[in-house]
Amino acid sequence: MDQFPVGNGELLVGGILLTRLAARVGRTxxxxxxxxxxxxxxxxxxxxxxxxxxxxxxxxxxxxxxLVAHMAGLVDGIDVASAGELKVALDAGADPxxxxxxxxxxxxxxxTQAVAAGILVNVxxxxxxxxxxxxxxxLGLPARVAVRVNPDFELKxxxxxxxxxxxQFGVDAEQVPELxxxxxRAGLAFEGFHLFAxxxxxxxxxxxxxxxxxxxxxxxxxxSAPAPVRFLNLGGGFGIxxxxxxxxxxxxxxGDNLASLAEEAAQQLPQAGIVIELGRYLVGEAxxxxxxxxxxxxxxxxxxxxxxxxxxHHLSASGNxxxxxxxxxxxxxxxxxxxTPSGVCSVVGPLCTxxxxxxxxxxxxxxxxxxxxxxxxxxxxxxxxxxxxFLGHGAATEVLV
Amino acid sequence: MDQFPVGNGELLVGGILLTRLAARVGRTxxxxxxxxxxxxxxxxxxxxxxxxxxxxxxxxxxxxxxLVAHMAGLVDGIDVASAGELKVALDAGADPxxxxxxxxxxxxxxxTQAVAAGILVNVxxxxxxxxxxxxxxxLGLPARVAVRVNPDFELKxxxxxxxxxxxQFGVDAEQVPELxxxxxRAGLAFEGFHLFAxxxxxxxxxxxxxxxxxxxxxxxxxxSAPAPVRFLNLGGGFGIxxxxxxxxxxxxxxGDNLASLAEEAAQQLPQAGIVIELGRYLVGEAxxxxxxxxxxxxxxxxxxxxxxxxxxHHLSASGNxxxxxxxxxxxxxxxxxxxTPSGVCSVVGPLCTxxxxxxxxxxxxxxxxxxxxxxxxxxxxxxxxxxxxFLGHGAATEVLV
Lengths: 401, 401
Known about the structure:
The structure is a homodimer. Chain A has two domains: about 5-30 and about 285-400, Lyase, Ornithine Decarboxylase, Chain A, domain 1 (Beta Barrel); about 65-280, Alpha-Beta Barrel (TIM Barrel). Chain A is α/β, with parallel strands linked by helices. The first copy, chain A, is elongated, with a radius of gyration of 22 Å. In chain A, about 55% of the residues are buried. Helix content of chain A is about 30%, strand content about 25%. Chain A has helices spanning about 20-25, 35-50, 65-70, 85-90, 110-115, 130-140, 175-185, 205-220, 250-270, 280-285; strands at about 5, 10-15, 15, 30-35, 55-60, 75-80, 100, 120-125, 145-150, 160, 170, 190-195, 200, 230-235, 275-280, 285-300, 300-305, 330-335, 345-350, 355-365, 370-375, 395-400. In chain A, helix 8 runs parallel beside helix 9. Chains A and B meet through helix 4, strand 10, strand 16 and strand 17 of A and helix 4, strand 10, strand 16 and strand 17 of B.
């Protein structure tokens, strides 16, 4: 993990020495997100992808309001997953026209809020048509919709498969023509398609293949559309490396492929803008989780660094959020970056459960109480994806630096 | 699952029809905990265990304030895992003398709060002695302590092993004599031992064996104690059935064994009161998670009931909290208890992740939007053990009925 520079033997976050940042925050544990790294990541994508491709931030990955506001200034749109996220996006100043709303269980009240806000709803069920039409009529506003498609293929080698076979997400590709007909009859404002085949993928060839298939499927489905396709969200699925041996995703072939698709789109769907929707890839590597060692215990020859942070703040790093086999997230003693390990140790939290394990038998620089343990790759699916009320230790602070 | 009666085709919670309760709560999803079932469970334990054995409630299992207040009136003491839980226990009216505090990473401020409150601290590290002595001196109050021992054996067949080998919990048995000497020199008010070998165990023979071993270990360690043993917490570990084929724990042999141990204690540790500390066993079966079906989707032949609840409220039921292999929690359509299934279906939540799965291919009564899905065995490690902020859908309500 080299995205955070080291100075004076300490990690630098947003150019600030980690111990100074901890003093500024005033308490541990905390999450710190680096504005410069967020901007740099968006810049790398802009450089690698065709100019015409729009970037959306899926804020479910990290809905911290200040971070969403920062991202809203960098990307072309925000994807929300609930009315709660919609409020944060609007408060952050995101342009409602460039906000889209996806989710398999949207409530009628949420659909009404979406129409009132003027955002785009990714329809995932025949059931959503009637409440959208009713809200549109009651408010005198168009119900802007795209269709989220459950493709008839999957994204290979994905952390999570989100398409292919039966799924709760989207509408099966083979049912989409009928859905489009109903959307037309209900007078909803059709704008396009959302296809999303999987997530956390590190293989560019698999992403290229899925984007090509999604594009071809959208072309076929567009023949049944009640209006021209203007929005063509080909999903995301770009992964970040977490574990030893994993390599960063190669953006070049993805950019080349999208350039071809954009050319074809210009011919065949001339009003369509291609959108890539990313969450983890945009924010995951820009974040750290920082906790303080409060005890160093040696039990039967094994060293435990007991910290004030743990599973309740960072469930994924404990290996309890969808992982089949627990692996260590990259970690370090953030104020002893030049230290050398004299052996392995485990980093645990204050909870009365053996699940509360942040690092299992890792070689870390020799550390003492007061030192700061840092978990890298913590900018996505951290604080909000964790059971922060568990055992009453209180929530982690989040700072954007 | 027969602890909740059925009337008029609906589950009864605290004697109230489920649909009426849902109307009273005013929104879904919610957790409902049944006061009568909580009292009944304590009564069953009182009947099966010797009168002299004290029951403690480990409130980490469910810290809802009203429930803790109810439990405080039923049991003999409360175990807390943080200063946050201590506040709830004190607010609930628990007697500070009968509150104990365990946890591998207690902070100095928490130790001071514990001394100020007059509760018993289960010391888990040599490091805790100095701040306890300092707090005692500063406040002019005794620092009441017991020693949490990491035994040199484990509780067989446990859901989680909490003793034996290297552990972050407690102090290794072989280091305890030295710890006791330091406690004596520091002038802390020694009261006894806490031994805890594992959790969620359904085999009475394994629990009996562990309690016997814990007792014998405590006897040996008592020889090095700076004061008579008055508190002898033999842990808990009593499991509840979650999955097909699991049987309720047989309390009779545990009661017989504790009767023998209590007799021996009367001879060898005449001031000692035996404590059994239970969390999940006291509250787990008295709780339901209730969510409402908002959509019924058929995707490629498979039926999905999409509800307004899910992983964000009930992580354990989704199979993502320490489980190696996902199994379905017992579930039902709570307002169609007399209905018969015409096939299998899956119950999912509103989140954009395939992890959001409450029931995977289960035979459930045929149901429609508006019906109420109920997850049984949800009284422990539910709301607070879940990432309630995930995707911004809001927290579940909790009611004590």
